[in-house]
Amino acid sequence: MQYIKIHALDNVAVALADLAEGTEVSVDNQTVTLRQDVARGHKFALTDIAKGANVIKYGLPIGYALADIAAGVHVHAHNTRTNLSDLDQYRYQPDFQDLPAQAA
């Protein structure tokens, strides 16, 4: 298997291997031709996604399209934005606590 559609509602699939432009993928009795190279772990559109429409992965909206995205196009930070608000941004702020020494 070189790609996976995780949930029935998804409008993107995930490449499980590097996929070359021109590769034909078949999902749900539909064939999509990749319009760009898609690196392993990255998403590509299974259907046309209109500007402003949600990108659906895991059956849930994970972001929205910044521009129209045609089926077969690489879906990543260059053409999508997260649905998280500025208040939901994650920051790594460790608060390490010293632990008492343990008896041997």
From TrEMBL:
Pfam families: SAF (PF08666)
Sequence ranges assigned to domain SAF in this UniProt record: 10-81
Keywords from the named record: Hydrolase, Lyase
Domain of life from the UniProt record: Bacteria
UniProt-recorded Gene Ontology molecular function terms: hydrolase activity; lyase activity
PANTHER family, alphabetized: ALTRONATE DEHYDRATASE (PTHR30536:SF5), ALTRONATE/GALACTARATE DEHYDRATASE (PTHR30536)
UniProt protein name: UxaA family hydrolase
Species this chain originates from: Escherichia coli
